[in-house]
Amino acid sequence: MAKQKSEPTTKEKPRGGRARRMGEMLPDIGGTAFRRFGFVQSSIVSRWGEIVGERYAAVSAPESIRFPQGKRAEGILTLAVAGAHAPMMQHVVPVIIERVNRFFGYAAVARVTIRQGEVSKPTASPKRPELVALPVELGESLRTIADPELKAVLESLARGVATAAQPAVIGKVS
Question: Using CA atoms, how far apart are residues 39 and 108, in angstroms rounded to an integer?
């Protein structure tokens, strides 16, 4: 006798929900990787220059924060420091601990370990184009829109169009 195949009992859930912007998903994706390397907040890496100052950020970068088991305080911050700057950084360790703890808002770091290594230079973020004021005729036509979200989107679009209205040169210029 031949056996008949039965259909699987589990059905796939249909995909649903709204489409999410990439910027909304990045903290979730990056957060997992940062936690794996011991960072409670990924912002300590991205805002290192603000935390310790540009002078120290140019020669150092945070690698990890290791906490005692079951705690989120009194951790050990590991820094990668460029070559000959390590002795200087050893002298400013108390300042770094104080600034990092001020950033966290509690005594998150108790010690700093320094490892000599290569430190990548922080890249400057691209500058945004200057916003141009809305032309009067566009501003007047947008006042009649009742939905505040739609109005904000249309104003943003109008500013973008006004900014991009600079004359473009196409072809060969001699």
Answer: 11
